[in-house]
Design a protein that fits this description.
DNA-binding; 5 helices
DNA sequence: TGCTTGACGATCA
DNA sequence: GTGATCGCCAAGC
């Protein structure tokens, strides 16, 4: 599985490492993978992540802390609901105290 | 085979 | 400070 070393697989691995109650951005993941501008690919990878339920895509938002991908869930409200269930404040699809709950994949290296 | 789209990000105007 | 454009790589048509 990991032998594929696909962008997607790498993204899934990082997303799975996101601790509960924390969120990260597409750019942060892309940057961790060595690509600062391939955030689009991260989002595209998340689209394929629907096959991987182990991937908490709801913990991944854009750099503004906005739930841009909520519309891709079974229900648009599902993403916000999941985040709130983890203790993350989400108002109008916007994560409150984003930088406070923001988690950088680089922390796993520490 | 080639162009367009896509859950973003950064920079330029 | 806001708006628009380019860049990234991959998949769909």
């Amino acid at each position: 599985m990991s032998q594929r070393s696909s962008f997607f697989q790498d993204v899934y691995d990082v997303v799975k490492l996101i601790p509960k109650g924390r969120v990260t951005s597409y750019g942060a993941i892309g940057k961790y993978l060595g690509m600062t501008s391939s955030a689009r690919m991260v989002g595209w990878a998340m689209n394929a992540s629907h096959h991987n339920r182990e991937v908490p895509a709801h913990r991944v938002v854009n750099r503004s802390g906005v739930l841009t991908g909520k519309h891709f869930f079974d229900r648009p409200n599902r993403m916000q609901e999941l985040l709130i269930a983890e203790g993350i404040e989400v108002i109008d699809d916007q994560i409150q105290h984003f930088e406070a709950v923001f988690w950088d994949p680089s922390e796993v290296l520490l």
